[in-house]
């Protein structure tokens, strides 16, 4: 009898605990990029180097993020965290206008760099919303389409083209957290419908081509984002996780052979059969493979920059004089006679920088 009573009490306690967990409002992470901002119609709207257009892009981004926050709040969400997922070059503050974010949303701010797709969340998060995203590399029609890097590198996992929304969904799936809503252009919508069919989508502009987009009116874009975010939370119980079974093969196709040769220097990397520009890495774990893919991109970066510098130099009327100066510097450095000025102190060295996500 005593054992039976204890079992009944344990069952009642379990039900009580389950009920209290289910009644808690969900906690949601909002990650934003910038290429998919409703008002961004040229690349200049997304770059810190273009102050006037960037300012307009930030205003539109803030409106998009606030529309998502409004939709989440309308669905009963009271705990909202925002992470910067765009590398505009602004190292001082997030791309969103933080002071204008609707309460109760708050920005992530850390004193160390972190990976936005793997390290922005923990098990306290119930769902992820992605705002202002873009189509993946290889989609020649998507506005500013790329995957992770501004270099035009095609990115595939187990033979499937991956965009950044899919990387985010796979990263969050490690902790059983679903991606439930995405906004961006109509080309990304096609990719999301194909690969993440349970995700609510808000199309906020038409991609004319990779360099141009036609935005919807501000009010309509905000209405769509808010409605999609609200519906996504209301349907949270039926949300799914992106399940791509391992082992994993991350294959990156670079712009030229020089980049591929540099990337192939990574231990464990191997050329993709039949291609002189594609390199792949293998792993049993998605996160491990993802981080290895970033190392491939990092190794290829200097080769891409060297090609760009050579092209810029070749087009300069001072090309011959500059080539001589470069040659003289390299010779002097070899002989120990060149003076290399130290880099100026950075904000990071001064210990003042805060990391809101991507840089």
Short description:
With 359 residues, this protein is of the alpha/beta class. The protein is built from eight helices and twelve strands.
Q: Looking at the structure, what is the overall shape?
A: globular
Helix/strand order, N-terminal first: HEHEEEEEHEHEEHEHEEHH
Number of helices: 8
Overall pLDDT, averaged? 90
β-strand amount: 15-25%
In what order do the strands lie side by side in the largest sheet? Answer: 3-2-1-4-7-8-9
Q: Give the low-confidence spans.
A: 5-21
Query: Based on DSSP secondary structure assignment, what is the total number of beta strands?
Result: 12
Q: Approximately how much helix is present in the residues?
A: 25-40%
Distance between the termini: 64 Å
Structural class: alpha/beta
What is the radius of gyration computed over CA atoms, rounded to a whole number of angstroms? 24 Å
Quick one: biggest sheet? Answer: 7 strands, mixed
Output the keywords.
359 residues, 12 strands, alpha/beta, globular, single chain, 7-stranded mixed sheet
Describe the secondary structure blueprint for this structure.
Elements: H1 2-23, E1 27-32, H2 51-74, E2 79-84, E3 106-107, E4 127-131, E5 154-157, E6 160-161, H3 164-173, E7 179-185, H4 186-195, E8 200-207, E9 213-215, H5 218-234, E10 248-253, H6 257-263, E11 270-271, E12 278-283, H7 286-314, H8 319-334
Parallel strand pairs: 1-2, 1-4, 2-3, 4-7, 7-8
Antiparallel strand pairs: 5-6, 5-10, 8-9, 10-12, 11-12
Helix pairs in contact: 2-5, 6-7
